[in-house]
Amino acid sequence: MRPSRSPATPSSPASRWPFSAWGYVAILASLVRDTETSRTVTAFIAIAGLAFSGDLTYLELFTIHAICIWCVGSAVCMLVLTGLSVTRLLRSPVPAH
Questions:
Q1: What is the value of pTM for the model shown?
Q2: Which residues lie closer than 8 Å to 57 by C-beta, 6 or more apart?
């Protein structure tokens, strides 16, 4: 079942993507380069995505009282991505000055 769309929602193809998909696209885009800055950006985006997923999971459990399997899958993916990106950031060599 597709979510209802408000009349004010733009009809561009990009607006049809789920909100979480943009987070995954941002993480993939930040993986293009392997610099300290890109590793930091990747970890930051993943942590923000995990916080967002945590908020949605909280709402599912305590407000809506319903579980969405796609949301749980997305939260698990964000948890794994956050763990990997933070590990990648912390294990990266410190640049010499």
A1: 0.74
A2: 71, 72, 75
